[in-house]
């Protein structure tokens, strides 16, 4: 192990020891490689912690199996409203989009309130994450300790290899980030790749989104106004809009609620997935 790696590890351990709360840390564990590294660092630091996984119900099956097999000590936050696809089908709002991502708060940002958290966020991952520091705060002003915030990808992998940290097999297939399959925040090509790899998830998204239109397009809201769904003539139109980010032709000139959707090709936008379970880009 070279000196810079030794320094990184000892700084991370020092940080965890310095900020250890009496009741122990809440460690946000997604099953991804960064989560595995922060859990190992917490163990090496001998700080008290309990690790938690937020069950999104749409994570890749390989990832879920990995967590169950190799991290049986991790506790699960189960979603209050059941499976996400059932929620998409029933909830009286449009399916989650890049601008209206209600599912993150319901499925990925649970748990850890009023606790000091350890998260595996890294500044190198994206522009949005560059603002993160070793000690940050979440939306509830809870302290967040980020022991690998300044680690590069290579350093994460070096640590994994040198400490024989187990990781999900999907990385060996070339996946670099793991999380909700079909997430609307992912780049278009990534979403397509995910749907090609796990086609059942695409079927489920389509079913849920079409069921959502069936349920809400023709009945009025409590105030008598129609749901936004009524602007789509068919369930297929809503599904295609969600899938391709292209609104139907008959929407032209209709600017109402434009924040819900866009006709632009968003494939090259660097929108961020919330892998840590903590709000980072709002
Ligand atoms: S990561 Fe994407 S799909 Fe998962 S909860 Fe957040 S917005 Fe929804």
Mind telling me which CATH architecture of the largest domain this is? 3-Layer(aba) Sandwich
Q: Strand pairing plus helix content: what structural class?
A: alpha/beta
Overall number of structural domains: 2
Amount of helix: 25-40%
Walkthrough of the structure:
This protein has a six-stranded mixed beta sheet, covered by helices on one side. The chain is elongated. Helix 1 crosses helix 2 (33-45), helix 2 packs across helix 6 and helix 8 (199-216) crosses helix 9 (235-244). The chain has helices spanning 3-18, 33-45, 61-70, 84-90, 102-108, 153-162, 188-197, 199-216, 235-244; strands spanning 25-28, 49-54, 75-77, 117-118, 135-137, 143-145. The chain folds into two domains: 3-173, HUPs (Rossmann fold, 3-Layer(aba) Sandwich); 188-247, no CATH class. Helix 3 links the parallel strand 2 and strand 3. It has nine helices and six strands; from the N terminus they run αβαβαβααβββαααα. The chain is α/β, with parallel strands linked by helices and 282 residues long. The structure holds iron/sulfur cluster. The site of iron/sulfur cluster (SF4) has 13 residues, from helix 5.
Topology (elements, then pairings):
Blueprint: H1 3-18, E1 25-28, H2 33-45, E2 49-54, H3 61-70, E3 75-77, H4 84-90, H5 102-108, E4 117-118, E5 135-137, E6 143-145, H6 153-162, H7 188-197, H8 199-216, H9 235-244
Helix pairs in contact: 1-2, 2-6, 4-8, 7-8, 8-9
Fill in the keyword field for this structure:
282 residues; alpha/beta; 36% helix; 7% strand; elongated; disordered C terminus; binds iron/sulfur cluster
